[in-house]
Every structure is written in C-alpha cells, then in structure tokens.
Design a protein that fits this description.
Blueprint: E1 2-7, H1 12-24, E2 28-31, H2 43-59, E3 65-70, H3 74-80, E4 88-91, H4 98-106, E5 110-114, H5 120-132, H6 139-149
Helix pairs in contact: 1-5, 2-3, 4-5
Amino acid sequence: MKIYFAADHAGFELKNALVEYVAELGYETEDCGAYSFDKDDDYPAIIAIAAKRLAVDATAGHGSRAIILGGSGQGEAIVANRFRGVRAVVYYGKEPSIPPLSREHNDANALSLGARFISEDEAKNTVKAWLSKPFSEDERHARRIKQIDEIN
C-alpha cells in the first residue's frame, strides 16, 4: 500500500518523522512536500499534490492512503476533500479510537493530523492503528459511502 504525505510549515517536522516511521512499518511512502521549512508557506497547494495523487489511485481502485498535516489539520482536510474519491478525516489527539473508526465505518483514505495538538508518539500510534484498520465492508457503511460518492 502506498502512503502519500504532505504538510505545511506547522506539520513539517512531524511529517518527516512519520514518513520515516511508516516506511519502517513496511509501507511504500511518497513525500509530496513541503520539502523544506518555510514559515510563510501556504498549505492548499502542498496538500493538493498528495490529495490529487490519492484521488487518481482511488479512481483506479488502488488502496493508497494519505497522511496530511497542518497546525490543526482542519484546512488540510478541507483541501483534500475537494478531490473526488478522497475521504479525509481530522484528528488532533486525545481519543485514539476515532481514527480507526474512520477506517472501519467511513473507509477514510486520508488522515489529517493537527500537528500543534498531537505528540510524535501519539501521532505514530494513531497512524499505525489507522493504517492497519480495514474497512468493515458492512452493507450500511458501504451504502453510505456510495451515497457520498454520488454527490456532485
């Protein structure tokens, strides 16, 4: 499974740590930027690179995922969700059951982390749990995802 990563300045350091960690877990990783720290960078263009690649893979039926990071993760998820086939959810800590549930119930394929609210250890544990959790394939969840995908 391929995992795309992207972050602005607020998530830059945590992204770099997670790219290395996820590769160590045995996943194929692709860093879509930012490639250097720039306190004045803007997240939309950076996040769009990873989201577009994920959308292409989703359309082709590949099981790729994306991990995107920013200060809160909110804006990053908004950008990612503009791309058809991307289902981004936000996590900024405290309740570790939420990200795996987003996989199980919503087949979320992008995880947006609020880097200002989550430690590196919590991020690693969260990412590992999220990546390892499969979609339940339950009929009601699949039906709802189909309804989401049919929205123009």
